[in-house]
UniProtKB/TrEMBL annotation:
Protein family according to the UniProt entry: Belongs to the glycosyl hydrolase 30 family.
Keywords assigned by UniProt, alphabetized: Glycosidase, Hydrolase, Lipid metabolism, Signal, Sphingolipid metabolism
Record-annotated membrane-spanning stretches: none
Annotated Glycosyl hydrolase family 30 beta sandwich domain residues: 440-498
Signal peptide as annotated in the record: 1-22
One Pfam family cited in the UniProt record for this chain: Glyco_hydro_30C
Organism lineage string: Eukaryota, Metazoa, Ecdysozoa, Arthropoda, Hexapoda
Residue ranges constituting the Glycosyl hydrolase family 30 TIM-barrel domain according to the UniProt record: 92-435
Protein name as annotated: Glucosylceramidase
E.C. numbers: 3.2.1.45
Keyword match Signal: yes
Gene: LOC108562628
Length: 501
């Protein structure tokens, strides 16, 4: 081996991983087709000997995590892009997706072996190693009908009671078993966080799951108790939550045509609910360590969150912030970096993202670029993670009972017994696989025409992710003063991850 190394600087990896079974539809790139018998894998990541690095590349032309190993060359005085691990920023919280009803329904529509291949793609060491999962508290728009956990008796009982609160069949069919299987595949607990879409209808002034119907003040405490009961019943199933949010997109009602189930809150009444109900109830419960995640809504509304945190009691209860990506192109990154400067003690992460308002397409590299671009922007601006929306949908982008069809990194065609790993799956994988929890963002010099972000891993490895949106390849020299130089040709229209120890 040493001799080979001596004669050839280029080491091609021992090829045990299974290649992408690619298929081209009408888009600019491909999907990787999986079924019960076959699914592409990545070799588990092992620390490399000092002096070596590996580059994994996915691109528009169809490379998927293609690995090339090489050796550092000695430092020169030539123009290089410098890595500086003395400048250290935020820690990684994690990467993941949501265990919606739609996710579960689609996984269950495959046979067990194919379903396991799918979960392995997300959670195993041969997959992209998600460590986080978002769990809706009750139904969302990606359910087959609207529901809460106290529907049956809402006309006779308008306050929370333990006896009248029951988990839904969806929890037992689509969420709990799949979360457990995912944890088995991951080999440890997932970092789960819960978000509620809607309360029981009877607690809202319009009697509906959606629209401009406020939560009645007389039900504010019920709504807090309802959240705690959810945590208790999931704990009885062996599932514990790292975090719980103050509610999914409470400002959805501002868009009058949207029928997404919502508990509308304006910033000031949400402060009252947090300070007098949710905050104290959570902290006094056995789940006092569970993180309370504020906002759980668009970047647009970060200024409203700042208004909330002017209140010291609220500031004391809110541990961190979940941000949704849907309006990001209209709101500059400085909104989140400024928030970090004002509230450095609050962690931040992207708690929801997906390609929405456009039909599902199979194999769009453009969408992969949108994912990678946004993830890098977030990581460069103090965010500690990125959690996708539905982990799995059908090829129409559902089921969704309000016909809010969207795209997903994995789509299932159950009639063919297949699922398709979209370019977006690999885009997020270039981060999730290589940036374990507690990796620390370090400095790397900006490069015109490229997006680049670097991290030091908890095992002292270094991971650098590069997005090239240009149609030309790009020669690049990276200098790590502790290691040497990396000479690289960044493929056109690609995402690459460089790792070394
Ligand atoms: C909040 O705390 C800060 C710092 O301790 C203090 O200066 C400020 O007066 C407090 N504000 C309120 C509303 O209590
Ligand atoms: C990483 O480096 C630090 C400082 O050099 C050392 O103390 C620590 O043991 C290393 N950790 C691992 C996992 O190698
Ligand atoms: C079916 C059921 O458990 N109903 C209960 C709802 O809560 C009220 C008040 O605690 C009880 O009286 C009902 O029996
Ligand atoms: C879900 C639930 O608690 N349903 C109950 C509603 O109330 C009726 C009548 O008291 C019960 O029979 C249901 O079990």
């Amino acid at each position: 081996m040493q001799r080979t190394l001596f004669f050839s600087m280029l080491l091609l990896s021992a090829n045990c991983s299974k290649k992408c079974n690619s298929r081209k539809y009408d888009q600019d790139s491909i999907v990787c087709v999986c079924n019960a018998d076959y699914c592409d894998t990545i070799d588990p990541l092992e620390p490399l000997p000092k002096g070596e690095y590996a580059v994994y590349t996915s691109d528009k032309n169809g490379m998927r995590f293609e690995k090339v190993s090489n050796r550092f060359t000695s430092l020169t005085n030539q123009k290089t892009v410098k890595i500086n691990r003395n400048n250290r920023y935020q820690e990684i919280i994690g990467f993941g997706g949501a265990f919606t009803d739609a996710t579960g329904i689609n996984i269950n529509s495959l046979n067990a072996k194919a379903g396991t291949n799918l979960l392995k793609s997300y959670f195993s060491k041969e997959g992209i190693e998600y460590n986080m999962g978002r769990v809706p508290i009750g139904g969302t728009d990606f359910s087959t009908h609207g529901y809460s956990y106290m529907d049956d008796n809402e006309s006779i009982e308008t306050h929370f009671t333990v006896r009248n609160f029951t988990l839904a069949k969806e929890d037992f069919n689509y969420k709990i078993p799949l979360i457990k299987e995912s944890e088995l595949i991951l080999g440890r607990k997932l970092k789960l966080f819960a978000s509620a879409w809607t309360s029981p209808k009877a607690w809202k002034t319009n009697g509906k799951y959606y629209g401009l119907g406020y939560l009645r003040k007389t039900n504010f405490q019920d709504w807090a108790d309802y959240h705690i009961r959810f945590l208790e019943l999931y704990e009885q199933q062996g599932l514990n939550f790292w975090g719980i949010s103050t509610g999914n997109e409470p400002l959805n009602y501002l868009l009058p045509f949207i029928k997404i189930p919502t508990v509308p809150f304006f910033w000031n009444n949400q402060v009252e609910w947090i300070n007098e109900h949710m905050g104290p109830t959570l902290r006094k419960s056995k789940f006092s360590e569970t993180k309370l995640i504020g906002l759980d809504d668009q970047r647009t509304f970060v200024p409203l969150l700042e208004l909330q945190l002017l209140n010291n009691v609220t500031r004391g209860f809110i541990d961190g912030v979940g941000v949704h990506w849907y309006m990001d192109k209209y709101i500059p990154n400085s909104v989140i970096s400024n928030f970090h400067r004002k509230y450095p003690e609050k962690f931040m992460f992207a708690s929801e993202a997906c390609i929405s308002s456009e039909p599902v397409v199979l194999g769009s590299w453009d969408r992969a670029e949108r994912y990678a671009d946004n993830i890098i922007d977030d990581l460069l601006n103090f965010m500690g993670g990125w959690v996708d929306w539905n982990m799995v949908l059908n090829v129409k982008g559902g089921p969704t009972y309000i016909n809010n069809f969207v795209d997903s990194p994995i789509l299932v065609d159950s009639s063919a017994g297949e699922f398709y790993k979209q370019p977006t799956f690999y885009a997020i994988g270039h981060f999730s696989k290589f940036l374990p929890e507690r990796s620390i963002h370090i400095d790397v010099e900006k490069q015109r025409g490229l997006k680049i972000v670097a991290f030091e891993r908890p095992d002292n490895g270094t991971a650098i992710i590069i997005l090239n949106k240009k149609i030309k390849s790009r020669a690049l020299k990276l200098a790590d003063p502790d290691r040497g130089e990396i000479i690289l040709n960044v493929a056109p229209k690609s995402v690459s991850t460089i790792v070394y120890w």
